[in-house]
Amino acid sequence: MTSFVVLLLAYILSQFFRSFLAVVSGDLVRDLGLDQGQLGSLQAAWLIAFALSQFPVGYALDRIGPRRTLAGFLLAAVAGTVLFGLSQNYVAALTALALIGVGCAPILMAGFYLAARLYSPRHFATMSSLLIGFGAIGDPLSGAPLAYFLAAYGWRATVFGLAGIVALTALLVVLLLKDPPPLSGSTHRPASLLGGVWQMVTKRALWLILPFTFVSYGVTISMRGLWIAPYLQTVHGFDLAATSYAAMAMGGSIAIGALLVLPLYRRIGAKATVVACALAVVAAFFALALWGADSSRLSVALLLVIGLFGVTYAVVMAHARAFMSPQEIGRGVTFMNFVFMGGAGVMQWVSGRLVNALDRQGHEPQATFAWLFVFMGMALAAALALYVASPTESKAGTPAAA
Question: pTM of the predicted model, to two decimals?
């Protein structure tokens, strides 16, 4: 239980950093002279660095265990947070966000690693969803509470305070996190990690799951972590306080949704749960494109729907895990996490370029964001169409018969 609490505290920080740019973006535009495309690149740098770090994370988890892996990587997050507070230009901020992404990379995977080692397969999705659901508290903390500290102390002092919290978390990991018992006879070598990645890439049962993995988390985190503030402020005239409350509410809906999928998953299985939730998100994006500009209340309500049904991360992971042997679990979940976060980073980057291109063409904010919502809805719908054809996991947690 102590290890779970320590991982939960660390994951709250990870979720906070994943979304905090939405609230601090106005300060960065003013003080660093950033445009919307550069803001998108900052968030993309966090996610892409996070994703690329999954491979050394997987290697380190197997070689030295979660305690030393997580503590060591968190030092990069400390350095990145300090650099971000000192940033005077776009390049420094980009480097800082990449370092923070590297530092946060092993947090969730350490939890998955412990869950896979210590719990039975049928409890894997439950433990993963509990970690994601409760850890998502970090998302609403990056809304109104962050806005309060920004207004009271300024963004640089607030970021330096966050650096101290990250350093304290690293210390708690060293002192309190427990590694699982070593596997008897384990002789994991670096080459086996690359071989394991190739095994995942060539596993045909995953081919129709991977496109949805690449897109689904990306569209939701792009809205919460990047576009909710510019959209509500430019289209509906929200001030910082109103924007922060809306961002906090969407973060809360993400946390609630991560927990509410559990009973649905147990009742109808992973694939059916994911399809039902994704259809709700696609409908919400198209509704935002058609009617979002007409009503701020409707817009916020639809953003809450996207948050509530848009993070089926643990359920998709459980679906993919059903096609992995016990020997493949560690590298398998690490590979899936790479696809999740890499897709999210690409979605941030592409959406930033799309918004910049529409702005240069002279579109009003209402039209710009309507096209952004259409793009996200169509991307998710296309990935879902492939996912529907993927093999269904059996109730026992093993692949269903062909």
Answer: 0.75
